Amino acid sequence: MKIAIIGSGGVGGYHAGALMDAGAEVHIVTTSRHVAAISDRGLIVHTESGSRTYHPASVTTDGTGVGVCDLVMITVKLTHFEESLENCQQMIGANTLVLTFQNGVVAPDMVAKRFGVEHALPCVTFIVAFIDGPGEVRQIGGRPKMLIGSAPIGLDGTYPILEEFKDALLANGVDAHISPTIAHDLWYKYAVICTMGGVNVLANATVGDIRSFDETHALWAKSVKEVQSVARANGVHLTDEDCEKIVGELDNYPEASTSSMQRDLIAGKLSELEYLNGALVAKADAAGIDVPLQRLIVTIARLHARRGRVGLAS
Protein backbone atom coordinates (compact mmCIF):
# COMPACT_ATOMS: atom_id res chain seq x y z
CA MET A 1 0.00 0.00 0.00
CA LYS A 2 1.17 3.49 -0.83
CA ILE A 3 -0.30 5.85 1.76
CA ALA A 4 0.04 9.60 2.20
CA ILE A 5 -0.69 10.99 5.65
CA ILE A 6 -1.50 14.69 5.83
CA GLY A 7 -0.55 15.90 9.29
CA SER A 8 1.88 14.41 11.81
CA GLY A 9 0.08 15.20 15.07
CA GLY A 10 -1.29 12.59 17.45
CA VAL A 11 -3.60 10.87 14.96
CA GLY A 12 -1.34 11.15 11.92
CA GLY A 13 1.93 10.38 13.67
CA TYR A 14 0.69 7.38 15.63
CA HIS A 15 -1.00 5.72 12.66
CA ALA A 16 1.99 6.46 10.42
CA GLY A 17 4.09 4.35 12.77
CA ALA A 18 1.56 1.52 12.89
CA LEU A 19 1.33 1.41 9.09
CA MET A 20 5.11 1.47 8.67
CA ASP A 21 5.29 -1.47 11.10
CA ALA A 22 2.99 -3.27 8.65
CA GLY A 23 5.34 -2.55 5.74
CA ALA A 24 3.27 0.14 4.04
CA GLU A 25 4.97 2.82 1.94
CA VAL A 26 4.13 5.89 4.01
CA HIS A 27 4.64 9.50 2.93
CA ILE A 28 4.07 12.28 5.47
CA VAL A 29 3.03 15.82 4.54
CA THR A 30 3.35 18.18 7.48
CA THR A 31 4.61 21.56 8.66
CA SER A 32 8.22 22.68 8.31
CA ARG A 33 9.19 22.17 11.96
CA HIS A 34 8.06 18.54 11.86
CA VAL A 35 9.66 17.98 8.44
CA ALA A 36 13.02 19.19 9.77
CA ALA A 37 12.86 16.93 12.83
CA ILE A 38 11.66 13.81 10.99
CA SER A 39 14.21 14.30 8.21
CA ASP A 40 16.98 14.65 10.78
CA ARG A 41 16.27 11.72 13.10
CA GLY A 42 12.96 10.12 12.16
CA LEU A 43 9.42 10.14 13.51
CA ILE A 44 9.40 9.17 17.18
CA VAL A 45 6.28 7.51 18.59
CA HIS A 46 6.01 6.98 22.34
CA THR A 47 3.49 4.51 23.77
CA GLU A 48 3.10 2.89 27.16
CA SER A 49 5.05 -0.11 25.84
CA GLY A 50 8.06 1.95 24.75
CA SER A 51 9.33 4.28 22.03
CA ARG A 52 9.96 3.61 18.34
CA THR A 53 11.63 5.64 15.60
CA TYR A 54 10.31 5.49 12.05
CA HIS A 55 11.66 6.67 8.71
CA PRO A 56 8.87 7.34 6.19
CA ALA A 57 9.39 7.01 2.44
CA SER A 58 9.28 10.81 2.31
CA VAL A 59 8.44 13.74 4.54
CA THR A 60 7.63 17.10 3.01
CA THR A 61 5.62 20.29 3.33
CA ASP A 62 4.55 20.02 -0.31
CA GLY A 63 2.61 16.99 -1.47
CA THR A 64 3.04 17.59 -5.19
CA GLY A 65 6.05 15.27 -5.44
CA VAL A 66 4.54 12.31 -3.60
CA GLY A 67 2.66 10.95 -6.60
CA VAL A 68 -0.60 9.02 -6.83
CA CYS A 69 -1.44 7.01 -3.70
CA ASP A 70 -3.78 4.17 -2.85
CA LEU A 71 -4.96 5.98 0.26
CA VAL A 72 -4.66 9.56 1.49
CA MET A 73 -5.30 10.04 5.21
CA ILE A 74 -6.15 13.62 6.17
CA THR A 75 -5.57 13.92 9.91
CA VAL A 76 -5.37 17.69 10.44
CA LYS A 77 -8.04 19.71 12.24
CA LEU A 78 -10.89 21.20 10.22
CA THR A 79 -9.35 24.66 10.54
CA HIS A 80 -6.55 23.46 8.21
CA PHE A 81 -8.63 21.10 6.08
CA GLU A 82 -9.05 23.20 2.94
CA GLU A 83 -5.32 23.81 2.57
CA SER A 84 -4.75 20.07 3.05
CA LEU A 85 -7.04 19.35 0.11
CA GLU A 86 -4.90 21.66 -2.01
CA ASN A 87 -1.78 19.82 -0.88
CA CYS A 88 -3.03 16.37 -1.87
CA GLN A 89 -4.37 17.27 -5.33
CA GLN A 90 -1.54 15.45 -7.15
CA MET A 91 -1.96 12.30 -5.02
CA ILE A 92 -5.46 11.54 -6.27
CA GLY A 93 -5.74 8.91 -8.98
CA ALA A 94 -8.81 7.20 -10.40
CA ASN A 95 -8.99 4.70 -7.52
CA THR A 96 -7.55 6.74 -4.66
CA LEU A 97 -9.60 6.92 -1.48
CA VAL A 98 -9.29 9.99 0.75
CA LEU A 99 -9.86 9.00 4.37
CA THR A 100 -11.21 11.70 6.70
CA PHE A 101 -10.79 11.57 10.48
CA GLN A 102 -12.08 14.99 11.52
CA ASN A 103 -14.69 15.69 14.16
CA GLY A 104 -18.14 16.56 12.83
CA VAL A 105 -19.71 15.53 9.54
CA VAL A 106 -18.54 18.14 7.01
CA ALA A 107 -15.12 16.74 6.02
CA PRO A 108 -16.37 13.96 3.69
CA ASP A 109 -18.57 16.50 1.89
CA MET A 110 -15.57 18.80 1.42
CA VAL A 111 -13.57 15.95 -0.13
CA ALA A 112 -16.50 14.96 -2.35
CA LYS A 113 -16.93 18.52 -3.56
CA ARG A 114 -13.24 18.78 -4.48
CA PHE A 115 -12.49 15.31 -5.89
CA GLY A 116 -15.83 13.53 -6.33
CA VAL A 117 -17.96 11.48 -3.95
CA GLU A 118 -16.26 8.25 -5.06
CA HIS A 119 -13.03 9.38 -3.39
CA ALA A 120 -14.46 10.47 -0.01
CA LEU A 121 -14.25 7.80 2.68
CA PRO A 122 -15.24 8.77 6.24
CA CYS A 123 -13.52 7.18 9.22
CA VAL A 124 -13.93 7.61 12.95
CA THR A 125 -10.99 7.25 15.31
CA PHE A 126 -10.83 6.96 19.07
CA ILE A 127 -7.34 7.69 20.35
CA VAL A 128 -5.62 9.77 23.01
CA ALA A 129 -2.42 11.00 21.36
CA PHE A 130 -0.67 14.34 21.12
CA ILE A 131 2.45 16.10 19.88
CA ASP A 132 5.36 15.69 22.29
CA GLY A 133 7.76 17.88 20.32
CA PRO A 134 8.73 18.40 16.66
CA GLY A 135 8.44 15.04 14.87
CA GLU A 136 7.44 13.32 18.09
CA VAL A 137 4.05 12.03 19.29
CA ARG A 138 2.84 10.28 22.42
CA GLN A 139 -0.12 7.89 22.69
CA ILE A 140 -1.59 7.11 26.11
CA GLY A 141 -4.54 5.14 27.43
CA GLY A 142 -6.02 1.99 25.96
CA ARG A 143 -5.72 0.48 22.52
CA PRO A 144 -6.72 2.99 19.81
CA LYS A 145 -9.84 2.17 17.81
CA MET A 146 -10.75 3.03 14.23
CA LEU A 147 -14.00 2.61 12.30
CA ILE A 148 -13.38 2.60 8.55
CA GLY A 149 -16.25 3.28 6.17
CA SER A 150 -17.04 0.24 4.03
CA ALA A 151 -17.55 2.53 1.02
CA PRO A 152 -18.01 6.22 0.27
CA ILE A 153 -21.34 7.38 1.70
CA GLY A 154 -24.15 6.68 -0.75
CA LEU A 155 -22.13 4.20 -2.82
CA ASP A 156 -21.90 0.41 -2.85
CA GLY A 157 -19.12 -1.91 -3.85
CA THR A 158 -16.18 -3.74 -2.34
CA TYR A 159 -12.80 -2.17 -1.72
CA PRO A 160 -10.05 -4.77 -1.12
CA ILE A 161 -7.58 -2.00 -0.24
CA LEU A 162 -9.67 -1.25 2.85
CA GLU A 163 -9.40 -4.83 4.07
CA GLU A 164 -5.63 -4.63 3.61
CA PHE A 165 -5.58 -1.31 5.48
CA LYS A 166 -7.70 -2.69 8.33
CA ASP A 167 -5.57 -5.82 8.66
CA ALA A 168 -2.37 -3.76 8.74
CA LEU A 169 -3.73 -1.69 11.62
CA LEU A 170 -5.14 -4.69 13.50
CA ALA A 171 -1.75 -6.39 13.39
CA ASN A 172 -0.03 -3.33 14.80
CA GLY A 173 -1.93 -2.09 17.81
CA VAL A 174 -5.13 -0.54 16.42
CA ASP A 175 -8.58 -2.05 16.98
CA ALA A 176 -9.69 -1.41 13.39
CA HIS A 177 -13.03 -2.42 11.88
CA ILE A 178 -14.84 -1.90 8.58
CA SER A 179 -18.17 -0.21 9.34
CA PRO A 180 -21.18 -0.42 7.01
CA THR A 181 -22.90 2.20 9.22
CA ILE A 182 -20.22 4.88 9.09
CA ALA A 183 -22.74 7.73 8.63
CA HIS A 184 -24.39 6.72 11.91
CA ASP A 185 -20.96 6.41 13.56
CA LEU A 186 -20.05 9.93 12.44
CA TRP A 187 -23.27 11.48 13.69
CA TYR A 188 -23.07 9.63 17.01
CA LYS A 189 -19.62 11.05 17.69
CA TYR A 190 -20.82 14.43 16.37
CA ALA A 191 -23.59 14.43 19.00
CA VAL A 192 -21.03 13.75 21.74
CA ILE A 193 -18.74 16.55 20.54
CA CYS A 194 -21.47 19.16 20.00
CA THR A 195 -22.87 18.36 23.43
CA MET A 196 -19.73 18.21 25.54
CA GLY A 197 -17.90 20.88 23.56
CA GLY A 198 -20.87 23.20 23.29
CA VAL A 199 -22.25 22.96 26.82
CA ASN A 200 -18.77 23.22 28.35
CA VAL A 201 -18.19 26.48 26.49
CA LEU A 202 -21.67 27.79 27.26
CA ALA A 203 -21.33 27.04 30.98
CA ASN A 204 -17.64 28.01 31.09
CA ALA A 205 -17.11 24.96 33.29
CA THR A 206 -15.69 21.45 33.51
CA VAL A 207 -17.70 18.28 32.99
CA GLY A 208 -17.77 17.75 36.75
CA ASP A 209 -19.19 21.22 37.37
CA ILE A 210 -21.88 20.73 34.74
CA ARG A 211 -22.78 17.31 36.11
CA SER A 212 -23.04 18.58 39.69
CA PHE A 213 -25.84 21.06 38.89
CA ASP A 214 -29.14 19.60 37.71
CA GLU A 215 -30.02 22.50 35.44
CA THR A 216 -26.75 22.40 33.48
CA HIS A 217 -26.70 18.59 33.49
CA ALA A 218 -30.10 18.66 31.77
CA LEU A 219 -28.55 20.62 28.90
CA TRP A 220 -26.69 17.51 27.76
CA ALA A 221 -29.91 15.65 26.99
CA LYS A 222 -31.38 18.72 25.31
CA SER A 223 -28.30 19.14 23.13
CA VAL A 224 -28.23 15.49 22.07
CA LYS A 225 -31.93 15.64 21.12
CA GLU A 226 -31.26 18.67 18.91
CA VAL A 227 -28.46 16.80 17.12
CA GLN A 228 -30.76 13.80 16.76
CA SER A 229 -33.41 15.89 14.99
CA VAL A 230 -30.87 17.30 12.51
CA ALA A 231 -29.34 13.86 11.92
CA ARG A 232 -32.74 12.41 11.05
CA ALA A 233 -33.39 15.29 8.65
CA ASN A 234 -30.13 14.28 6.96
CA GLY A 235 -31.10 10.63 6.63
CA VAL A 236 -29.27 9.28 9.69
CA HIS A 237 -31.38 7.61 12.38
CA LEU A 238 -29.92 8.35 15.79
CA THR A 239 -32.18 6.44 18.16
CA ASP A 240 -33.51 7.48 21.55
CA GLU A 241 -31.29 4.74 22.98
CA ASP A 242 -28.29 6.40 21.29
CA CYS A 243 -29.19 9.68 22.98
CA GLU A 244 -29.45 8.06 26.40
CA LYS A 245 -26.15 6.26 25.85
CA ILE A 246 -24.36 9.51 24.97
CA VAL A 247 -25.52 11.22 28.16
CA GLY A 248 -24.48 8.12 30.10
CA GLU A 249 -21.00 8.31 28.57
CA LEU A 250 -20.66 11.95 29.56
CA ASP A 251 -21.78 11.05 33.08
CA ASN A 252 -18.67 8.85 33.30
CA TYR A 253 -16.11 11.37 32.02
CA PRO A 254 -13.48 12.51 34.55
CA GLU A 255 -14.63 15.53 36.55
CA ALA A 256 -11.86 17.82 35.30
CA SER A 257 -12.60 17.11 31.61
CA THR A 258 -12.79 20.05 29.23
CA SER A 259 -13.48 20.02 25.50
CA SER A 260 -11.06 20.66 22.66
CA MET A 261 -13.06 23.68 21.52
CA GLN A 262 -13.07 25.03 25.08
CA ARG A 263 -9.29 24.60 25.38
CA ASP A 264 -8.73 26.32 22.03
CA LEU A 265 -10.82 29.31 23.12
CA ILE A 266 -9.01 29.51 26.46
CA ALA A 267 -5.67 29.48 24.60
CA GLY A 268 -6.84 32.14 22.14
CA LYS A 269 -6.55 29.69 19.23
CA LEU A 270 -8.87 29.35 16.25
CA SER A 271 -11.43 26.72 17.22
CA GLU A 272 -13.50 24.30 15.14
CA LEU A 273 -16.75 25.98 16.25
CA GLU A 274 -18.00 26.83 12.76
CA TYR A 275 -17.41 23.25 11.55
CA LEU A 276 -19.10 21.69 14.58
CA ASN A 277 -21.95 23.48 16.37
CA GLY A 278 -21.95 26.18 13.70
CA ALA A 279 -22.39 23.63 10.93
CA LEU A 280 -25.15 21.93 12.91
CA VAL A 281 -27.09 25.21 13.14
CA ALA A 282 -26.64 25.73 9.39
CA LYS A 283 -27.94 22.22 8.66
CA ALA A 284 -30.87 22.81 11.03
CA ASP A 285 -31.74 26.06 9.26
CA ALA A 286 -31.61 24.31 5.88
CA ALA A 287 -34.04 21.67 7.17
CA GLY A 288 -36.32 24.15 8.95
CA ILE A 289 -35.54 22.69 12.38
CA ASP A 290 -35.38 24.77 15.55
CA VAL A 291 -32.23 24.20 17.63
CA PRO A 292 -32.27 27.00 20.23
CA LEU A 293 -29.60 25.54 22.50
CA GLN A 294 -27.13 25.04 19.64
CA ARG A 295 -27.83 28.56 18.41
CA LEU A 296 -27.11 29.96 21.88
CA ILE A 297 -23.89 27.92 22.12
CA VAL A 298 -22.69 29.29 18.79
CA THR A 299 -23.54 32.87 19.76
CA ILE A 300 -21.67 32.68 23.07
CA ALA A 301 -18.67 30.87 21.56
CA ARG A 302 -18.43 33.48 18.81
CA LEU A 303 -18.41 36.19 21.47
CA HIS A 304 -15.58 34.43 23.32
CA ALA A 305 -13.62 34.13 20.06
CA ARG A 306 -14.21 37.79 19.24
CA ARG A 307 -13.02 38.89 22.69
CA GLY A 308 -10.00 36.64 22.34
CA ARG A 309 -10.24 35.25 25.82
CA VAL A 310 -12.22 32.84 27.95
CA GLY A 311 -11.31 31.14 31.19
CA LEU A 312 -12.78 28.56 33.49
CA ALA A 313 -14.87 30.05 36.26
CA SER A 314 -13.17 29.73 39.64
Automatic annotation (TrEMBL):
Residues 182-302 form the Ketopantoate reductase C-terminal domain. The keyword Lipid biosynthesis does not apply. Pathway: Cofactor biosynthesis; (R)-pantothenate biosynthesis; (R)-pantoate from 3-methyl-2-oxobutanoate: step 2/2. Its EC number is 1.1.1.169. Keywords: NADP, Oxidoreductase, Pantothenate biosynthesis. One of its GO terms (cellular component) is cytoplasm. Residues 3-150 form the Ketopantoate reductase N-terminal domain. It comes from the Bacteria. It is an enzyme of class 1 (oxidoreductase). InterPro entries: 6-PGluconate_DH-like_C_sf, 6PGD_dom2, ApbA, KPA_reductase, KPR-Related, KPR_N, NAD(P)-bd_dom_sf. Catalyzes the NADPH-dependent reduction of ketopantoate into pantoic acid. This is 2-dehydropantoate 2-reductase. The lineage of its organism: Bacteria, Bacillati, Actinomycetota, Actinomycetes, Actinomycetales.
